[in-house]
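Pilot study result, target chain (182 residues):
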Amino acid sequence: MAAPRYVPSPKNQRKYYESSKRKITDQWRLERPAEQKSASSKNSRFGYQGPDQGYALKIVQYFHERVYLTSDERWTDAAQTAVVVGLKRASLFGRAPTRFDLEAAFCLWGFFDPTPDVELVELRIDNLTNIGTSHNYLQRRVVADCIPVDGLKQGLEKILESYTNDWHSLIDVSILGKPEVP
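Predicted structure:
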């Protein structure tokens, strides 16, 4: 254990005390092998990063009783869809997810509607089935990307109004169904 300088020590140890100083440089260099030097167009599927994203997994459980599902849909798929879209919405505002983000996501996909449009239900069954499994990252990215940023930045009341008027304006159907490997 190191001792302060004022503590007496034998003469044979003193000579090593001064020689063990590290050379300090004030210059930082990018030398680690995995470090990115610049943003790359190959990394287009990283999504939107935001703080405290795991909190959305806790919040989503409070909506279990409010969600309407058909016999072909599962709660895990609806919950993961809401988490993915809710996290995108929260990160666009630069904050952690709140219940309003997940509520907006459930509303966008018509999970709060007891009688949703048949076309929307078919779209959900075709594209959101098994999204709750852990090996569907590309499918999750496609689901997040199919919701336009302009629609997500609206207030919750405006999203609900847009859903009741025309849900097609909230979901870009042309992106769905084609998870591409970058």
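One observation from the pilot: The chain has a mean pLDDT of 82. A full batch analysis is planned for the follow-on phase.
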